[in-house]
Design brief:
Strand order of the largest sheet: 1-2
Radius of gyration: 15 Å
Order of helices and strands: HEEH
Shape: elongated
Helix content: 25-40%
Number of strands: 2
Number of helices: 2
Oligomer: single chain
Structural class: alpha+beta
Length: 71
């Protein structure tokens, strides 16, 4: 299972969202340097943008929603 599918399953199982969208934006980071000093070629699954709508976020601030996902 790839990272996209793994993240989608975790989000669906944890938050039962009305809508979830995961966009692979790895190609936008091509040429950036990572911890090993080598430039990243933009391939693979390293950078994602996630949009999720779920009742689990009701009444939470934007910061609390971010913290909730990372917990």
């Amino acid at each position: 299972m790839n990272r996209h599918d793994t993240a989608l399953k975790l989000l669906e199982d944890s938050f039962h969202p009305e809508r979830v969208e995961i966009v692979n934006e790895s190609h936008l980071h091509a040429g950036h340097h990572h911890g090993d000093g080598r430039p990243f070629d933009g391939s693979g699954e390293t950078h994602f943008r996630i949009r999720i709508i779920s009742a689990a976020f009701a009444g939470k601030s934007r910061l609390d929603r971010h913290r909730f996902i990372l917990a």
